[in-house]
Amino acid sequence: MREKAYNSFQIAQAQFDKVAELLGLDAAARELLRNPIREYSFSIPVRMDDGSVKVFRGFRVQHNDARGPGKGGIRFHPQETIDTVRALSMWMTWKCAVVDIPLGGSKGGVICDPHNLSQREQEQICRGWVRQISREIGPITDVPAPDVMTSAQHMLWMLDEYEWIHHGRFPGFITGKPVGMGGSLGRTEATGYGVIFTVREALKELRIDPSATRASVQGFGNVAQYAIRLFQQIGGKVICVSCWDQSEQISYAFRKLTGIDMGELTSITDHFGGIDKTKAKQLGYEILPGDEWISQDVEILIPAAMENQITLETVAMIHPNVRLIAEGANGPTTPEADKVIHDRGIFMIPDFLANAGGVTCSYFEQVQSNMNYYWEKDEVLGKLDVQMTSAFLAVSELARKQKIYMRDAAYVIAIGRVAQACRDRGWI
Ligand code: NAD
Question: Which ligand 1 atom is at minimum distance from the Cα of 355?
Fold first, then answer.
């Protein structure tokens, strides 16, 4: 059965409405929280390399800043829409609230395809984006970050423009900066490690020894690679990973039942997280169709690649031995498949909790930049562990006490905190 194509903002609002009902929120709270508090849409004229002028459309949506300055990335994408940005800004509000960092939710975007733009043209888009919105964003109001198709270089151009406009040095204006230019040590590891901090706690709750577990992982990029490294350090075995083959435009799974070796696999992996099939075969890996990452006989599944991967079609392939799913990717499970997972009693660590290590470390970057004083890597990762562990424990305790699904418990905590902050401020 094919599943419907949804508008992301409608999905975000439907998820919110369900939890608003559980929380018994009044009409004013619902009206305030199911929509962004502010949104900006603007033109960015750019003189192109051929001398012509092209006008790009830019967005910044601030969903809610009751708990602190807005936080959220800027996406460069040819199919960007205001509704996608609205949905992502709402999810940022809940993600910051569930890990209890004092930030709100925002998101930005520009409709463009960096593949077809020179470096100079991309720089002009970044500077133009900041010029249009510089009065509405800043270190104490709304802090951007990199996202789809934007990088540390884009962030530095944006920072430079902001600093020309505001006459000073404001490294806390933006995160995702390179280490040495205000970036934080530990950011590269943060999301993957954060996933495993929550897996470790879930295994304690399920009374399963990590060294008795096997995992299968979808993806072999930034999140997956650091998740695998830490999972192996706590004693677990990863027997299967999958990734996208750029040349064939298809995904493959790589299996070694004795456990994958990160040293050998990363030595044959390209910059985009694609593994060389021929070399993997020589190293003794079985090469399987990409979808088979989900049907492996393991205790733990970690989708860490893309959205909409566990669907009504693929959820049936999950092996009966699977006890835990940790969503490293954003939105890997469709609502219909999620219901099946819930009914099967599989322990779910939902995306906006499991992968919140990234934004938590960005918050640490912001704090360090505002102080202009930088921490050692161990200090960053130690603080990350504390933050992720206490967030996980709060959600799992609520799920246990109220006998509700982990995803619902995470939403109840996040939305409850934001609604309370709005009440405390006298907004509602
Ligand atoms: P990445 O680009 O570094 O890696 C993506 C990996 O997924 C690659 O190995 C690619 O080959 C693989 N892949 C793509 N399509 C696939 C498919 N159909 N089947 C199997 N593998 C496929 O990306 P990343 O930074 O690791 O992000 C992964 C996910 O985690 C995304 O959903 C992202 O939004 C989310 N996320 C990332 C961060 C972060 O800090 N990087 C933070 C929060 C959430």
Answer: 43
Cα of 131 from ligand 1 centre, angstroms: 31
Amino acid symbol at 188? T
Q: Do 122 and 146 touch, CB atoms closer than 8 A?
A: no
Name the burial class of residue 135, with classes exposed (0-12), middle (13-18) and buried (19+) by CB atoms within 10 angstroms of its CB.
exposed
Is 107 part of the annotated catalytic residue set?
A: yes
Tokens of 182: 């205000």
Q: Is 334 close to ligand 1, i.e. is its CB under 6 Å away?
A: no
Catalytic pick among 71, 107, 237, 256: 107
Distance 273 CA to ligand 1 centre (A): 8
Whose CA is closest to 190, among 382, 372, 390, 350?
382
31 HSE (CA, 13 A, CB side): 5
274 Cβ below 6 A of ligand 1: yes
Render pLDDT for 168-206 as a digit per residue (tens, 0 to 9): 999 999 999 999 999 999 999 999 999 999 999 999 999
CA 393/CA 78 separation, integer angstroms: 40
Contact 357, 391 (CB under 8 A): no
pLDDT tens-digit series, residues 39-66? 999 999 999 999 999 999 999 999 999 9
- How much is the pTM? 0.95
Tell me how far the alpha carbon of residue 422 lies from the centroid of ligand 1, in angstroms.
34
Judge if the beta carbon of residue 191 lies within 6 A of ligand 1: yes
